[in-house]
């Protein structure tokens, strides 16, 4: 009898671990869906709801690490202004445990309103980029994100290598 109670208790413990893991994946899937919907609507305020206030972000486009939601807000606001037709299309999503997601997605857009430092030859240039984003999530918020993409491909599409 005691042996069956211990076995039953072990089974309950295992089931609760499995159920909590499923809920974590469900939560991550909802966060990722929310994030990409907000990105495609260019809704910066809605997008920022997904981030921890102390989020750390890296990208080949930046020098160093962007820290905090203010840096995120500035980056996305600038991107959406520069490329008003910017679109994000999710391909594959891979989960590692209940706190890490790796997302493959494609961005497309046209550099319609470049920033002051952007060379004039890039104006009106269209691009398609394959991206890989690694998100670390804690308590339902993104605490770290690392973006990877082929910057050479982007520069080629922008006409950088055509310049004399």
From TrEMBL:
Which Pfam families does the record match to this protein?
A: SnoaL
Signal peptide from the UniProt entry: 1-25
Q: Output the superkingdom of the source species.
A: Bacteria
Keywords for this protein:
Isomerase, Signal
Q: Which InterPro entries match?
A: Cyclase_SnoaL-like, NTF2-like_dom_sf
State if Nucleotide-binding is listed as a keyword: no
Q: Name one GO molecular function term.
A: isomerase activity
GO biological process annotations for this chain's record?
A: polyketide metabolic process
Under which name does UniProt file this protein? Ketosteroid isomerase-like protein
Organism the protein comes from: Mucilaginibacter yixingensis
